[in-house]
Automatic annotation (TrEMBL), chains A, B:
Pathway: Amino-acid biosynthesis; L-serine biosynthesis; L-serine from 3-phospho-D-glycerate: step 2/3; Cofactor biosynthesis; pyridoxine 5'-phosphate biosynthesis; pyridoxine 5'-phosphate from D-erythrose 4-phosphate: step 3/5. Catalyzes the reversible conversion of 3-phosphohydroxypyruvate to phosphoserine and of 3-hydroxy-2-oxo-4-phosphonooxybutanoate to phosphohydroxythreonine. This is Phosphoserine aminotransferase. It is an enzyme of class 2 (transferase). GO terms for molecular function: O-phospho-L-serine:2-oxoglutarate aminotransferase activity; pyridoxal phosphate binding. L-glutamate binds at residue 42. InterPro entries: Aminotrans_V_dom, Aminotrans_V_PyrdxlP_BS, Pser_aminoTfrase, PyrdxlP-dep_Trfase, PyrdxlP-dep_Trfase_major, PyrdxlP-dep_Trfase_small. It comes from Alitibacter langaaensis DSM 22999. Binds 1 pyridoxal phosphate per subunit. It is found in: Cytoplasm. Homodimer. One of its GO terms (biological process) is L-serine biosynthetic process.
């Protein structure tokens, strides 16, 4: 089989050693003669596995002791609803920072559950270049129960690299598409959430890291599977959790620790992105429309000036084993998602293909 | 490795050919060089897979054309909240039939989202035998937007074998623990839902079968991932679905069709349960406390008169390869869950062990 590199924005690549381990024990987990999918989540072995998963994640991501880690269902989209249900309190209002599609969707969903103000924090200049224009909200943030933003907009490839300033307000981040791509000072956040299907594991499980003092204030009309207090008191098991997805996340964390932790991943991710953006910068054929300061390390968007050429690029790349390079339908063009599991060889192969395609079509 | 039989109540056994198929293609799905976990849910191959899954399920479970099939996240517990959000309408009130733990939990959760009346429909006689005392609600049902019940109480092993009469009211069933164990006249229901982890596949995906005229009436405060209209209009993909769990369900349906469909499963399930209940009936050592008419074909509960003996039974059975026979903590004793994937050999092995244990301990 030809070497394949999968640039899917999510569900995305999973590290090969993790998949191989899962494959090898799929019918016989820990010598029990059953699949990890078939055992009770309340059984001794599964409980041991999730305890170790919590420990590994705390070590890897440097999660402070006063934060709870929850593994929930419903995706980031579920948290779009769950966050206001759990965090709206005395102030009765939240602030949403809009940096693109996903942060906008978060605000749209939240409007069904709370009052909110929404501020656009991106500009597009006369050449179509998008940049983030504001990250300091310390003058207004404390009027709100929380301030919500998205650290990395998967569709455009806009990443907010400095943590917004919000004074003593509670900062909430949707980190779905760049979580654990680098070390983060978690103490700056009240709550972090992320769908697993980019950097953590397969689709169907959602990580929530929440400061303990923010737990216990959910409104009555909070579905119990999303009530942070109920779930924190039940090891994220008030109902049957997505056990296989959780197990895979646990394997991913072990793999990341074995490879040396987030510093190593951060360096590798920076290197991959730098290779690709440097190539794009010097090209007259491909363009990226994100300001240098906000270029995503995870999702690199680019396009030619011609929709037909873009379609041809995507099709020929797929034939060459470079899969899923089509941009999101709301933006068009191309997008290379180069999450943690993408090796540098994948980026090198992509650049080689881009050069060849440019030579043939420019 | 010794032959193991896993009597877990859920997550439960998955058919071995399904697990073997998943294992064989875990790193290379359909020759793509990637795992099914790593590909976009909106990609051509995944879309083809779910289209076929819908078709297979319609054929297998005889789903009428005026019903939509949704695959959602959040488990049955999520639907405890989603059902009132979507179905409460002009009448402003629902009726919940309480036959044990899970139907009671459904009502408890629903109270956060709607007004409801709750009627206990089980009796316990002087010997502790539980029976269902009422299934005709046609005199009162039409006052309510819907009538909710649970077809099979997993903890006690109480199964309601005749469909409750509700006149022209909308009947909603939590079928989590007996779905697709036998053919069902779906036209009698407005909505059926089930967590997958007993008869359909792994934990982390929830099947909803809903009559089309009931779609489109969700209240505003319905999280979009549970809005039946939004999901029905988006192939259950308004956010990233749990792709691997969905894929496994699709494999289970194919396997069931290959084995001859639900009639075959129904006969096999009846035979397995009859073997076990006949043995329990003649025993002076083990007791089952469910009236004959309501004995579950899926979850067979039994116990000795002695808690220590029960614990010894569970431990020695596990050593003999008969796993997860401990009863739910709210009931104690033993429980053998014998879902679709449990072969008759598992039940025979259990009975042989029960005889041996009785001989040694009576």
């Amino acid at each position: 089989m030809t070497q394949v590199f999968n640039f899917s924005a999510g569900p995305a690549m999973i590290s090969k050693p993790v998949l191989e381990k899962a494959q090898s024990e799929l019918l016989n987990w820990l010598g029990q003669g059953t699949s990890v999918m078939e055992v009770s989540h309340r059984g001794k072995l599964f409980m041991e596995m999730i305890t170790e998963c919590d420990k590994d994640l705390r070590q890897l991501f440097n999660v402070p002791d006063n934060y709870k880690i929850l593994f929930l269902q419903g995706g980031a989209r579920g948290q779009f609803a769950a966050v206001p249900m759990n965090l709206i309190g005395a102030k009765g209002k939240a602030l949403y920072l809009n940096s693109g599609h996903w942060s906008g969707m978060a605000a749209k969903e939240a409007r069904n559950f709370c009052e909110l103000d929404e501020i656009s924090i991106v500009d597009k200049d006369e050449n179509g270049v998008i940049s983030v224009n504001r990250t300091d909200f310390s003058d207004i943030a404390e009027q709100y129960d929380y301030v919500h933003y998205c650290t990395n907009e998967t569709i455009t490839g806009v990443q907010i690299k400095e943590i917004p300033k919000v004074g003593n307000a509670v900062l909430v981040a949707d980190m779905s598409s760049d979580i654990m791509s680098k070390p983060v000072d978690i103490s700056k956040f009240g709550l972090i959430y992320a769908g697993a299907q980019k950097n953590l594991g397969p689709a169907g499980i959602t990580l929530v890291i929440v400061r303990e003092d923010l737990i216990g204030h959910a409104c009555q009309a909070t579905p119990s599977i999303w009530n942070y207090e109920t779930q924190a008191n039940s090891d994220s098991m008030i109902n049957t959790p997505p056990t296989f997805a959780w197990y895979l996340c646990a394997l991913v964390f072990k793999q990341m620790l074995a490879e040396g932790g987030l510093e190593i991943y951060a360096k590798r991710n920076e290197k991959k992105a730098a290779l690709l953006y440097s190539y794009l910068e010097q090209s007259q054929f491909y363009r990226n429309y994100i300001a240098v300061a906000n270029r995503s390390v995870m999702n690199v968007t680019f396009s030619t000036d011609n929709d037909e050429l873009n379609a041809k690029f995507v099709a020929e790349a797929a034939e060459a084993g470079l899969q899923a390079l089509k941009g999101h339908k709301v933006l068009g063009g191309m997008r290379a998602s180069i999450y943690n599991a993408m090796p540098i060889e994948g980026v090198e192969a992509l650049i080689a293909f881009m050069k060849k395609f440019e030579a043939e079509n420019a």
